[in-house]
């Protein structure tokens, strides 16, 4: 592990620690029972199997969106259409499940793969607009989310809505298409294993393949990548397609694993959560499951805390904001980073002299 990696891990851990400390101070100042509130926040998810199951259930979609955004951001493509990709992934998985009669083992696979393809198309559109018209991908990708939301609401209301239900929801997805749970007393489903595999494959792609290397080089310096013979436009499109596919896959997995009907009439926020995950994981898919677990644990603890004490869940939003501010602050611990690099360089030079 080189000094830069060590420093990034250290800075992330310190950022989390400082943010939690500030949050604890705020709880102390605003709550009539601060000790109980902090204990519930930190240990609440461990009090029962069901509560810890809530953490894992919340972690699964965060892994998919985190890996997808990490791939796009590694190529310096600030494509924010992941929210729409996740949403359309859930819709497509539902529509396919309702309108096909495939064997039990094949049906969910087909549903989530088509969900991934739909998700890739959503993120590809802003990328193509950037390539063809030099439009701002930030703006176009943001607008895609709302196009997808209202398109999905239209499909839900006029094509797959169950008129016998008491709310705006789709017909029930066939049971043979839904993912089965893997732990009794929880709703943790086999999507957890799919998410872990996706994170591992994302890491292998970005750090062990030629295409992944080209993608990261393009993200670091487009001019250098272009002069090195890398097709920057191709990389732009590939990163958006792959990132959107992973996120759309996550939308399909979430529907088949946690829902029996499609009922998403508003954006769920997973695309924005993915930016937090990606920031914590330093765009490395291998670290995404850990970042996703931390965020899911924190939010589950906050929910338990708000139900048991007088502290609102909004304290977690403050914690998230502080973590992001500290992680992205380039000057935070910069002097210590220089000392680490100098120490490593000195040690390397000493080893070279010994060999000579």
From TrEMBL:
<feature type="transmembrane region" description="Helical">
    <location>
        <begin position="180"/>
        <end position="206"/>
    </location>
</feature>
<feature type="transmembrane region" description="Helical">
    <location>
        <begin position="286"/>
        <end position="305"/>
    </location>
</feature>
<feature type="transmembrane region" description="Helical">
    <location>
        <begin position="104"/>
        <end position="125"/>
    </location>
</feature>
<keyword id="KW-0812">Transmembrane</keyword>
<keyword id="KW-1003">Cell membrane</keyword>
<feature type="transmembrane region" description="Helical">
    <location>
        <begin position="52"/>
        <end position="73"/>
    </location>
</feature>
<protein>
    <submittedName>
        <fullName>Simple sugar transport system permease protein</fullName>
    </submittedName>
</protein>
<feature type="transmembrane region" description="Helical">
    <location>
        <begin position="137"/>
        <end position="160"/>
    </location>
</feature>
<keyword id="KW-1133">Transmembrane helix</keyword>
<keyword id="KW-0472">Membrane</keyword>
<feature type="transmembrane region" description="Helical">
    <location>
        <begin position="12"/>
        <end position="32"/>
    </location>
</feature>
<feature type="transmembrane region" description="Helical">
    <location>
        <begin position="311"/>
        <end position="333"/>
    </location>
</feature>
<feature type="transmembrane region" description="Helical">
    <location>
        <begin position="235"/>
        <end position="256"/>
    </location>
</feature>
<keyword id="KW-0762">Sugar transport</keyword>
<dbReference type="InterPro" id="IPR001851">
    <property type="entry name" value="ABC_transp_permease"/>
</dbReference>
<keyword id="KW-0813">Transport</keyword>
<dbReference type="Pfam" id="PF02653">
    <property type="entry name" value="BPD_transp_2"/>
</dbReference>
<feature type="transmembrane region" description="Helical">
    <location>
        <begin position="80"/>
        <end position="98"/>
    </location>
</feature>
């Amino acid at each position: 592990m080189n000094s830069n990696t060590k420093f990034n891990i250290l800075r992330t851990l310190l950022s989390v620690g400082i943010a939690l400390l500030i949050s604890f101070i705020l709880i102390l100042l605003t709550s009539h029972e601060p000790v109980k509130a902090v204990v519930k926040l930190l240990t609440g998810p461990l009090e029962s199997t069901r509560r810890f199951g809530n953490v894992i259930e919340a972690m699964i979609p965060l892994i998919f969106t985190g890996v997808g955004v990490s791939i796009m951001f590694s190529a310096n493509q600030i494509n924010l259409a992941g929210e729409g990709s996740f949403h359309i992934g859930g819709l497509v998985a539902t529509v396919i499940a309702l309108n096909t009669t495939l064997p039990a083992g094949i049906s969910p696979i087909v549903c989530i793969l088509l969900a991934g393809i739909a998700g890739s198309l959503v993120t590809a559109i802003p990328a193509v607009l950037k390539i063809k018209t030099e439009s701002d991908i930030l703006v176009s990708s943001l607008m895609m989310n709302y196009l997808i939301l209202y398109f999905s609401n239209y499909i839900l209301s006029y094509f797959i809505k169950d008129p016998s239900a008491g709310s705006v929801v789709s017909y029930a997805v066939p049971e043979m298409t839904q993912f089965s749970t893997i732990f009794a007393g929880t709703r943790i489903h086999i999507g957890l294993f799919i998410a872990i595999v996706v994170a591992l494959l994302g890491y292998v792609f970005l750090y062990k393949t030629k295409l992944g290397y080209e993608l990261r080089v393009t993200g670091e310096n487009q001019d250098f990548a272009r002069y090195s013979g890398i097709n920057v436009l191709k990389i732009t499109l590939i990163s958006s397609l792959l990132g959107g596919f992973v996120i759309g896959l996550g939308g399909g997995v979430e529907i088949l694993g946690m829902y029996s009907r499609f009922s998403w009439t508003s954006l769920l926020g997973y695309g924005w959560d993915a930016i937090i995950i990606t920031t914590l994981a330093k765009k490395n898919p291998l670290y995404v499951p850990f970042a996703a677990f931390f965020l899911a644990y924190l939010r589950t603890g906050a929910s338990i805390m708000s139900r048991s004490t007088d502290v609102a869940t909004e304290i977690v939003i403050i914690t998230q904001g502080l973590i992001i501010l500290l992680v992205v602050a380039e000057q935070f611990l910069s002097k210590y980073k220089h000392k680490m690099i100098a120490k490593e360089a000195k040690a390397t030079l000493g080893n070279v002299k010994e060999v000579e």
